[in-house]
Amino acid sequence: MKRHTTKFYSFFLFFSLPLFASEPFTNIHGFYGERAAGLAGAFTAIADDPSGAFYNPAGLGFTYNDGISISASNFKDVKRSYINIDTPGQIYSQTHQGFDPNFIGLVKNFDKWKFAFSVVNTYNFSYNRVDQVNYPLVSPSINSTRNYTKEKYNQLLVGPSIAYLLSDKLSIGATLYYLNDTKENSRTQFQQFSDLSYVMRSYVDNRKTSGILPIIGIQYQPVQKISLGMSMRRIFVLGGNRLYNEVYADSTRRPGTAAIDFIEGTGLSSSAIEAGALIQKPNLVTSIPQTSEFRWGIAYFPTSRILASFDIIHTSGYKVHKNQDEMSLRGNRLTLTTTNSEIRELTRIATTNFAYGMEYYLADNFAILGGIFTNEPNTKPVSWTESAVDLYLQNTFANKNSLNSDNVSLVYKAARSGTNPRNEYSRNRGLSLGFTWATSKSSLSITYTREIGSGNSRIDPNSLSQSFEYSSHAVYLMVSSKN
């Protein structure tokens, strides 16, 4: 039995490596619209083109032409690097390259009333990897590990906007987006040990969540050269579904009911057969964090050719609790296991980010835009000390206490920091540089953004935390027209 336990932990060590690595760990996933991208997202006090529906719908009140704006192409290249992950000097890198539309919007002008409709692809990450690790130093009993991974995360917003110009200085507006958020993961791992035995695990985890995202805003221009803006939004989940299916095989097990483990779960029920035990597990989570966001912005127009803008973006934290107890039955032996009720995959830490942008018209129809921004993590810091304490408690006490009586066992299992899915902490900084060619009827823009960051992560629950580096490049190509 000891041999099997050692093998299981070695298997879990490597399998858990990138399990949650692709989930968004920051609140700013990109920029949407023609000028907003060039200004690094500092657009709340301007918002006078179709992308204002996302940043501050009140800004639509100051549009005076019908218009359509299309971010026809957005190329993004992301790289996450986990340093010294299983062997000193070894770097595990996870990359994404995508070429997608990220914004389509239009505005219709009816004097003081303005109506708009927009489609926003806030993020779209896709990973397809094949990895192999041979003879890792941290686990001498392992000969090789092979991973086959596919992951996809997507969020889409679709909906109308309305704005009303109360006076030539004040406007109010609102947007109501329908939200569709999906996760599609599949993975297979084969691991062979020094005694030529092996284990194999394969799983599929698909989730789809629907909701609404209302945005309300106000914009005020006290004097001709200054504009002030504010917007508020919150995610409301309406429903969702999820399906998880897993199969685990161990060649050292005897043929029979204990030879194969099966786990299957949905948002309504979840159960498993593991090593011959029948286990009732907690229902799967079908929601996403229902966070709120507040934006404050100021824009300054010293001349007709120069614009400077500044935004503060505060995103609230989120935490929810739910019964996570399990019941296991093996023969006539009943085990009840209780643990922390916090749903850690939904936990978010509040963040405050800043964006600063400038626009300068070198000629009547040619402008250059640039900006800088922060992108703080919505996770807790991952410390080396905490990981060391976690490993000590796990190795000494298995992070649990048991009370046994006849054929009934009561177990309290403390939540390990090493198994927290929110296991990446990186403080990111970025810049943008854009060029716009504009006429009275149309415009064409191209913008480049660069974002880098560093911190710590712990994607291996049986090792200490490791250094982490983030790097991304994005190119936005946008076309718009006016009537």
Outline the low-pLDDT stretches: 1-22
- What is the rounded distance between the termini? 76 Å
Q: What share of the residues does DSSP label as strand, in percent?
A: over 45%
Work out the radius of gyration.
26 Å
Order of helices and strands: HHHEEEEEEEEEEEEEEEEEEHEEEEE
The number of helical runs is 4
Overall morphology:
elongated
Main sheet makeup: 14 strands, antiparallel, barrel
Oligomeric state, counting identical vs distinct chains: single chain
Mean pLDDT reading: 88
In short:
The chain is mainly beta and 483 residues long. It has helices at 2-15, 34-38, 52-55, 384-397, and strands spanning 67-83, 91-100, 103-110, 113-134, 142-165, 170-193, 198-223, 226-234, 236-250, 260-266, 270-274, 277-281, 292-300, 306-315, 326-330, 333-339, 351-363, 366-375, 400-405, 408-413, 424-438, 442-457, 466-482. Helix content is 8%, strand content 59%.
What report would you give on this structure?
- With about 475 residues, this protein is mainly beta.
- It contains four helices and 23 strands.
- Strands 1-3-4-5-6-7-8-13-14-17-18-21-22-23 form a 14-stranded antiparallel beta barrel.
- About 35% of the residues are buried.
- Mean pLDDT is about 90; it is low at about 1-20.
Record keyword descriptors for this entry.
single chain, 483 residues, mainly beta, 14-stranded antiparallel β-barrel, 23 strands, disordered N terminus
Fold topology:
Layout: H1 2-15, H2 34-38, H3 52-55, E1 67-83, E2 91-100, E3 103-110, E4 113-134, E5 142-165, E6 170-193, E7 198-223, E8 226-234, E9 236-250, E10 260-266, E11 270-274, E12 277-281, E13 292-300, E14 306-315, E15 326-330, E16 333-339, E17 351-363, E18 366-375, H4 384-397, E19 400-405, E20 408-413, E21 424-438, E22 442-457, E23 466-482
Parallel strand pairs: 16-20
Antiparallel strand pairs: 1-2, 1-3, 1-23, 3-4, 4-5, 5-6, 6-7, 7-8, 7-9, 8-13, 9-10, 10-11, 11-12, 12-15, 13-14, 14-17, 15-16, 17-18, 18-21, 19-20, 21-22, 22-23
